[in-house]
Amino acid sequence: MHLSQPGVLVLVCACFSVPLCSSHLYNQILKLEEILTTSSSIGAAVAKLFATQSLSVVINYSSNSQRASSLISSLESLRSSPHQKFLSIQGDAGSRPDIINLVDSTIRSLGRLDVVVSNCGWTRFSDFQNLDEGVDDDDWDTAFRMNVKSHLWLMHAAKPHLEEQEGLFVTTASTAGVKPSGSSLVCKFFLMCLVISVL
Asked: Domain range for residue 139?
């Protein structure tokens, strides 16, 4: 059994009280796959991109504080404005109280929230055609909590702050979201419905 690690959640705040060009940032995020390497996570790549755009960045990590500290050091080296701040906040993306604390701590530290990149996920690799192997309640509950509910909780917690700034919420799903091969399929279609409901 192989388990994926939760990704890095990235919360981004502008350093100045000026509107961000959300479409410009979103287009840059879409181009990230062109620069990713096998040693880079999507969340880390997004954080590094935003560090070069004079934005303050908050990253969330689950348990690996050393990896989070290393990423913060990388962001510091990419600093493009003296007003930028780079913070890491520990929390379980599968816990609603931790998600709420992540957003609240970001607002307390930086005063605003402009972009959220929700990049958490979990999977258990198994034979999709083997129903006996695939019926494990704990696996299904964990997958739904991490791949669907975590994004919902983060969107809900961030929504009033993003509305204030006309901000952007970006979420990711694996390639399992485009074919019947994993719980990301559920995540993709759930989030499509959620986007429609909040527009």
From this structure: 9-198
